[in-house]
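A quick aside before the break. I want you to see a complete sequence-to-structure record at least once, exactly as it would be stored in a machine-readable document. Don't worry about memorizing anything.
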Amino acid sequence: MSTIIDHSGIKKMVMLPVLLIAFSVVGQDAARYIDSITQRLDDRQKLEMLNEHTVEVRARNFALGSALADEALRLARKMKDEKLLALPILNKGTIYYLTGNLDSAQILWEDAMARFLANNDSVNWAHACLNMGRIYKAQADYDKSISYNQTALKVALEHHDTLATLRCLEGIATSYHKMGRYQEAYSYYKQTMEMNPNDKYTDIALGTLMNMGALCDDLDKIDEALERYTRALRIADSLQLPMRSATVLRNMGVIFIQTGENHKALNCLFKSLYIRDSLGLKREYASTLNIIGKVYELEGNLQRANEMYIESLRISEAYDDKDRIAVGLRLIGENLLLSNDFASAEAYARKSLEIAQRASLLLHTKENYKLLTLIFAASHQLDSAKEYIDRYAELKEQMTIEFDDETPTDLSEVSRDAPDGSAGLFQNTPSNGMTWLFSLIIITGLVVFIFVLMALLTCRRQQRKKFYRKIQ
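That is the input. The structure line, written in tokens, reads:
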């Protein structure tokens, strides 16, 4: 993988900030730091100080944050008060989560939830619920993630906890976004932004800008997406949050692919890749490999692209990451289609589709319908092509949304059960006659489509293809 990281000009551009981050981690004497913040305090005050500083430094300095959490756990056990263990356990779980150890994070957060419940500590119990929502979102179990976030949201609203409310709203929004339910996602993102005017809560503003940028990308609002990402990158850099900077750089790389600026795309993507490799973020590293592979594919280097996809898929399978496994399988299928290996392309597309449908990943399901349509059309299986283009059109129609910026948002509705989306998504469904007419048009146009497709596949290696799907 060193040949990837040592991309011309990229490594030098990111070496300085990464070295500064590494120096901060390695050079920090944790013991001295702990002594400096806890001297002349009794044990209870020391524990409060350790918990507070763990939260403040963990996102910038994993090693120091972990040392603080460990010392807090040691001190809480020494004090032999079970009630004091819950918060250090929660914080240690967060360290595991930030470094990609989701299994350990989940174990500790579930332990913390039980302890907070036993202590009648509803506020911190809600924070633990919020964290569990993140775990299930990372596992692509979005329904369960939304459920945990909504539970936490009820408590946050009852206690007028603005920061926790914002985090819950953002968590719900991102889960709907990942599911392809854009109407709900947009509604919750909008509420998050309205509750945080002038970016008062900077970290929340950063997350919202990043996520709204992703939503604009999915809706092909390229200029708006790039503007939000640029703002987000400034905030991430100013807060010295390398993980967030890497994510924004990755997403900006995708935008530049769409605009045909592959040089700028690779610049951003290799910066992101190098930071993620330095931080040991394997899942995110795999995601970036997929996008770099797409750039190579656009430039006609199918073999190099496939190497990127296979390496990314290997990492995703090691973590049983359903979302990224579905993406990786589909990308390999697309690559094989370009190589005219239709049978293998179909096999990969069907594997990806099976995972996407099982996990209710609508966006991946839609993309696999499109891929199977292209495969069957290219291999002259017109009945199968017609079947999947109908499925694609139907699902795309279901995912189409209309935004009404004049519609006021109502937080009183937020704490209720999650809407199933049927009212918003299907209210513009055409009548049976219109559906029949639409199908007739599709059938008539399919013949022309096949001939055009044959010519397109012949010259596709030399053409730029709009890459409008941001790979998560």
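Two observations worth writing down. Residues 282-400+446-472 form a domain with the Serine Threonine Protein Phosphatase 5, Tetratricopeptide repeat fold (CATH 1.25.40.10). Residues 1-28, 402-441, 459-472 have pLDDT under 50 and may be disordered. We'll return to this after the break.
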